[in-house]
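Thread: sanity check for a docking pose with zinc ion

Original post by kr_44:
Hi all, I'm comparing my docking run against an independent structure prediction. Below are the sequence and the ligand SMILES. Could someone generate the full complex and paste the structure tokens? I mainly care about where the ligand ends up relative to the chain.
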Amino acid sequence: MDLIDTHCHLDIQAFSSQFDILLARARATGVQRLVLPGVDRDGWDRMLKLCRTNQGLYPAPGLHPMYLPLHRPGHLEELEELTRTADLVAIGEIGLDYYIEGSDRAAQQELFERQLEIAARAHLPILLHVRKAHDQVMRTLRAKRFSHGGIVHAFSGSAEQARQYIKFGFGIGLCGTLTYDRARRIRAIAAGLPQEAIVLETDSPDIPLAGHRGEDNRPEYLPEILQILAELRHEPPAETARATTANAERLLGLRPCPPLHQAPAYRKA
Ligand SMILES: [Zn+2]
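Reply from moderator J.T.:
Ran it for you. Here is the predicted complex with zinc ion included:
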């Protein structure tokens, strides 16, 4: 299998002692490519280094709305600089989080808009983090005329909101929430989404799957999410795998996966 985990925090310090083994296990289960989203400025260097030194890892640095107190105006300038100097696949994860109490919504909005502008100037898609704020995010995307699309990570909105994102060029990120029988709403939405809009993600180490509660989530569990999604959609898993991989490639401009551990065959002139 050739699966893409479109949202995985494998670069975090808590994973550093197990990084190699977790990556090897992910690949052994068919997860050949992983997109690493940013959280705060301090995490970008390690993320970029891991993506430079490991085939199939792609960086999407950004300033996460949940970590507002950590961000400084200078970080936006550094992010813009990175769009010129590093090989990024997206700006992420960015957006609005109205679920956290006491967060300064005006400051979140400002941070989101500045990062949308950076993504637009660099012609990059975005990875959206949105909780209880889908309509406001959609209003902002429209007002900014953002046209580079991306992925709504760990989608938690309504079927109508999913429809609007898709119309706006976004894919819908489906995660381990699907593995819970009681998650009826998102399971029904996932079953009915157009095939060209679905992408897979684990959000490791967050959002543990049913059957793996109490442990850190890991990219090697992505095929379990695929299995459930395929069942919900009454599709053969191979078809859902092919579609989600092709969608992630299209939305993030990824090239099809080169065979691992094999150097490109250059001819001498
Ligand atoms: Zn995340």
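The pocket of zinc ion is lined by residues 7, 9, 37, 93, 203 (CB under 6 Å). Hope that helps with the comparison, let us know if your pose agrees.
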